Amino acid sequence: MDVLNLAFVAAVLTSAAPVLYAALGGALCGRAGVFNIALEGQLLWGAFTAVAVSWWSGNPWLGVLAAVAATAVFSLVLAVGAVAFRADPIIVAVGMNLLALGLTGFVMREALGATGTFAPAGLPGLPDLDVLDGVPVLGPVLGRATVLVPLALVLAVVLSLWLARTSIGLRLRGVGEHPEAATSLGVPVTRYQMATVVVAGALCGLGGAQLSLGTVTAFTENMTAGRGWVAVAAVMLAVSRPLWVLGACLLFGAAEAWGFRLQGIGLPQQLTDAAPYLVTLVVLVLSRIRVRRRLRAADPVAAESAAHPETALHPEEPR
Amino acid sequence: MSALGQRLRLGAPAALVPLGAVAVAAAVGAGVMLAAGVNPLLGYEAMFRGALSVSNIDFAVAGFTAILAMSLAFAIPARMGEYNLGGDGQLVAGGIAAAAVALYVPGPAALLLPLCVVAGMLAGGTLASVSAPLSTRAGVPVIISTLLLSTPAVALTSYLVRFPMAQEGSPVPQTPRLPDAAHLPAFPGMSYTNAGLVLVLAVLLVTVYVDARTPVGYEVRVAGANRGFAAYGGLSVPRLTLGTLAAAGAVAGLAGAVIVMSQPFRFIDDALTAPGYTFAGVAAALLAGGRPALLPVTAALFTILSVGSAGMERDVDVPRQLGQVLQAVVILVLALRVLATRWIAARARRAAGGRA
C-alpha cells in the first residue's frame, strides 16, 4: 500500500472519530429506547469544555476529563426531562442544542474574552501517537492522530460485543425492545435509560474533545456544524447497531477527507463542505427505503408508522 | 387541540404556561447578568432600549419581520406534528434566488419586485418540499432531513456569493448591490422597515385563516392529532406533508427574499443566518403553542431578545449570546414543565391512596 492511500485512511479516521463517539452514544440510547437528538449540542458543549479546561489547567488530558464530566452533567437535562418525566424528547433536545450554542458563545466571551474563535498560542492540544512512527501501516495511519481516534474504533467493537454478549447489554436491549417485559422481570427501566443517556453524554464529551483538541486545537462558535446531526443520521442508518454505526461514520469521514483532497486541487471549500451531509442523507434515504420495503412485506400497517422519529432508531419493527 | 399543543400538553390554565416560561427565562437571565457583574435592571433596560428606542425600532421591526416568518416556517408543519429545523437553508435559498433574479433579470420595479419575491418563495419551498417524500416514502424523519439539507444549502449559497455572484474586489463575500427596481419600498421615514413586513403579516393572516376556517387546515390538524385516523378517514398524509412543508419553506424563502431586498440590498454571506432568526422563530412558535394567532406576540418577544441583546452587548458589555441562552431556557421550561404537573399529579394520587 502506498503512503498516499494510508494518509487518506488517516484523514478518514480523524474526520470520523468525533461523529463516531456521538453516534455510538446515540446508538446506545436507540437500543435503550430513548430518542436522543441532543447529540449536536452535547458535542459542542464537550468541545468547548475541553478547550476551556485545557487552557486554564495547561493539561489537555484534564480538558478531556472535564469534557466527559461536563457533557455527562449536561445530558442530565435529557435524562431527567425526557426519560424520568416523559417530556417530549424532541423539544427538550431542541432546547439543549440551542442552549449549548448560546452558552458556549456566552462563556467564551465572558470568561475567555474571545469572540468567534478561541485559539491562543500555547493552547495545549492532545499529543499525536508519535510512538507509532516507523511502524508499517499503523505509523502512517495513526501516527498523526490522537489516542482518542483508535479508542473510538475500539469502543465501537467493544460496545457491539457488550450489547450482544453481556447480561447488562441484554437487559439494555430488553429495556428498549419491550419495556413492559423488562419491568416484569425486575429490570429498572427508567434507571437503565437514564444511565444510558448519561453514558451517551460522556461519549459526546470524548467526541467534542477530539474535535477541539485533536482534529484541530481551537474552539470556534458552532464548530460542530451539524456533525451531531450526521451522528443522528448514522444511528438511524445503522438502526442503532454499533458496528454499522462505525461503517456509517467512516462513510462520512471518507466524504469529508475526500472533500479536503478536492480542496487541495482547487475546488472551493464551500462546495466540499456540503458533500458529507448530502452523502449521509442520500445513503440514509436508500437504507430507509430498503428497511421500509422489508417491513411492508412483513406488516404493511406497521411500516406506515416507520417514519416516526422515535421508531426509526430502533432495530426492532415498530409495534 | 393541535398536535403541537398536545405534545406540549397545554392544559386548562394555558395562558399561565407561556407567561411562566418567560418569567423563568427572565429570572435565569437576571442570574446570569448578576454572575457577570451586571445589574440585571440595567441589563434588561439596555436590551429593551436596543430593540425599542426611537433609533433602533426601525431595525428591530426588520428583525421582527424575519423572526415572525421563521416562526411560521416552524409552526405550519408543526400543526401536523412535523418539525422543520432546516429554516436556515430555506432562508438562504430564498435570499439567493431573489438576489439572482434581481441581478440578472432586467425590468421595472412593478415586474421585478413580485418576481424576486416569488423566486425566493419557490426556492425555499422547493428545498423544504424535498423532505416530504423523504419522510412519507422513505421514512426519514422530517426533523433529520430538513437539518441535513440545511447545512449544504448554506454552504452552496456561501459558494455562490464568494465566486459566481460575488462583487469584484469586495473584501466581504457579498453580491453586488441589487438594482433600485428590486428594493422593497420602505415605510415613510424608515429605512429597514418596508413592504416585507406587510407581506409577512399577510402570510400570517392567510395561515390563521386556513388553519381555523378551511377544510385543508382541519385536515392538517387531524393528521397532527392522529395520523392513523387521518389516513383511515381518507386524508392523504403524504400530500398534507408536502403541502405544509412547501408552505413552510416558502415563508422562510420569503424571509430571505425580504432581507436581501432591504438595506443594504445585497446577499452578504452569513448575514442571513448569523442573527439566528431560525431558532428565534422556533422558540416563538413553541411558546405560542398550537395557536398561530399568538405568533406576532411571541415573535415580538423574541425579537426584543435577539435584536435587543446586541444593544445590551454594546451598552453594558453582556455578550449577545445571552439572548440565545434565554430562548433555549424558554424552550426547555416549556418542555420540562411536565415535571411540575407530573409531580403535582403524583402527590394528588398518593394523597388519594391510589397506585402510581
Walk me through what this model shows.
The complex is a heterodimer of chains A (319) and B (356). Chain A has 319 residues and is an all-alpha fold. Chain A has a domain at 3-224. Helices cover 73% and strands 1% of the residues of chain A. Chain A is built from 13 helices and 2 strands. In chain A, strands 1-2 form a two-stranded antiparallel ribbon. In chain A, α3 runs antiparallel to α4. Chain B is mainly α and 356 residues long. Chain B has a single domain (3-352), classed as ABC transporter involved in vitamin B12 uptake, BtuC (Orthogonal Bundle), CATH 1.10.3470. In chain B, 71% of the residues lie in helices and 0% in strands. Chain B has helices at residues 3-7, 16-35, 40-52, 57-78, 87-104, 109-129, 131-136, 142-162, 195-213, 215-225, 227-232, 237-260, 277-288, 295-316, 321-352. Chain B is globular. The model of chain B has no long low-confidence stretch (mean pLDDT 90). The chains are: A mainly alpha (319), B mainly alpha (356). The interface between A and B is large, with 53 and 55 residues.
